[in-house]
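tool_call: predict_structure(chain=1)
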Amino acid sequence: MNPVLIDLNIIQIRWYSVLVLAACFVVLYLTQNEAEKFGVQRTFIFNMLFWALIFGIIGARLYYVLFNLEIYLKDPVEILKVWNGGLAIHGGLIFGLITIVLYCKKYKVRLVRMLDFLVVPLLLGQAIGRWGNFFNQEAHGAATTAAYLQRLFIPDFIIKGMTIDGVVYTPSFLYESIVCLIAFIVLLFVRRGKYTKVGTPTAAYLIIYGVLRFFIETSRTDALMIGGFKIAQIVSVIMIIFGLGMIMLITKKGKFEDRYNDKDNDLNIRF
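tool_result:
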């Protein structure tokens, strides 16, 4: 499996970088389109997500490096080589969320409204970005056999890509990508529901991705650890709890109260 898309000798363009950037552009474009339907300027969304992306990437890298500190202290220059992989999505989500919180606070914008616009495209972005892990031969599960994967109708090129040093590994990246894509499609319909409340897409994202990542981590062999526990599973449980808490608060609202598709619902953005 060649992780390099184009080799110009002086510089290499890697599949990982291309796919992550492609995912970012897709998320930006779809979020802008959705927000624009509710009168939000595309410039506002661009600026918000620009800074969220910058700090999200920094956070994703710091998060990964922090839990692999012994490795990176031996060669600190490796910390800068993000094209080789090593971006922890939970770190990116945390730092990106903090950035969006501060941005919304600055412009007195309702945070959950912006998150509702973002989280559905984010699932599609994650589905795309996971293929970067495939080309880097990372984010895989436990060792398995080619015969077993063939019975699951896994394409041969994926099986070959997940064969590392003669050992075939479970393509966890593929399972996560597929579920994220399905969740994206489902939430597109949920978001268009007549009685869907503000906050429902965000709560659904927290629960869906929390549950997905919790189970994906059970077979991951490269999971980040702390005190014998997989960090991603701890964060996933927290996400699920927050999501369920949001659902409980949302269900207390009246049938016609605070509907997502009410275009006059608290979107007076001064930008």
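agent: The chain has ten helices and seven strands. Proceeding to next step.
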